Amino acid sequence: MRKKWQLWVAIILLVAGLALLSIEPVKTALVAGYRPTVTHEQAAKNQRQTKQANYNMNQVKAVTMNQVINARLHAKDVKPVGQILVPTADVHLPIALGVANNTLMLAAGTMRADQQMGKGNYALAGHHMLNKQALFSPLYYKARVGTKVYLTDMNKVYQYQITTRKIISPYDVQVIDNTKQPLITLITCNDSGSKRLLLRGKLIATMALKQAPAAVVKLLHQKTNNYNVLAGY
Description:
Helix content is about 30%, strand content about 25%. It has about 230 residues and is α+β, with helices and mostly antiparallel strands. The protein has one domain (about 1-220): Sortase, Chain: A.
């Protein structure tokens, strides 16, 4: 009787283990499936809805399996307004309105309702994951002073250059305030999650998308790094 009971326990543990192993491909597929084709018309339409987005960073939750599933089920609620590309840091993401959890699971999120690319302080938030290649994670490891950052609304390309890299307190909310000078501000967590990494840069060039460097245009049409975000979760 005891041996039979032990056999059943072994079977249950084996099945549970196989189920856990199968979760990773599912998690990867869930996020990898969100690769929106953002057109200028769509970006412009969504840009007119900026005031309807959620900009409350206090409501942002850690990335979990349940959060990812919810984000994919409600992907239609994510409002893309363009893309961010940081070639030397391997960052390429959709930019979407606000910092709602569903948005940040899949994209970089705008941090104020009045933001316009190429004007004032364009502030973006993104998650730092265990997977060093996902979302804003590469910025922590690869972005430096001098790094080039490209934003596009699918009509123009805005080229920025990072001038400041520092660790700040989560309470230093003034860093996303608007400015007269055209700036880019990128915010993500540090390795411990208790602080924030701030990357700030100045606008150095604005050009039509068709006139952007061929290498930049090519990268903008390749896959984004909002996949496999739960590797190691």
